[in-house]
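Example 3.2
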Amino acid sequence: MTPPQPAPVEPVTAEPPPLDRRPVLRQRWCELAYFHWRYDAADVQALLPPGVTVDTFDGSAWVGLIPFVMRDVAIGPTPPVPWLGTFIEINVRTYVVDPTGRRAVWFFSLDVPRLAIVGVARSVFALPYCWSAADHVVDHRPDGSRHRYRMRRRWPGARPGARPSADMRFTVGDAIPAAEVSELDHFLSARWALLTSRRERLLYGRVHHERWPLHRVTDHAITQNVVEAAGLPTPAGPVHALYAPEVGVSIPWIETVDAAAPARKDQS
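Structure, written as tokens:
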């Protein structure tokens, strides 16, 4: 009997695929920075559940620390939720492929200063949200706006003396013309889905928004231990940094990944 063939891996696309399902959430992601480091794929794979395979570029896995301001969260067609619908989020993530060959984001943690959001996101969407103190300050300068994001986790707790935290400062540079966006930039930013798990079942959710308007980051300073809190080694080597001012986001309901789907082909 011929064994089933592995599913082909979908390509990385700078433009979002059409959204053919009704959104259950709408929101805006604003003043977003990408800070990424190379990682040994085996170190990242060890933290992923069965059926999820780390996605690689240039032979490496990539782990990101992503701060931004979530604005105007709305449920379905209703108006944005007052106060609760706008907050800072700082997440730690990597990039993966599910058993059917679909590329997605895998979150190790998502820190926000809204305890109610943490409860809803954990129970409804099975995402590892954490309750944290967080702030964001912008200083507009002639050479570009200077941003500072800070967070310190309140819950879940950590061992004494190692409470997860992050302090990120960076200056926004010029917009990157579409023709100059690199393959790595697309690999790290053009992700149109998330993957998570609940009780050993994989869940897949589309994340739809316009193409990222990417900018260069001219300088940055990062102090953090939130990446290590996810179980990863301390980041080493140069930081790949990008910035995006804003996108509007629509998110349909998450779906269960077919456990009987064929395994994907290995990434090069």
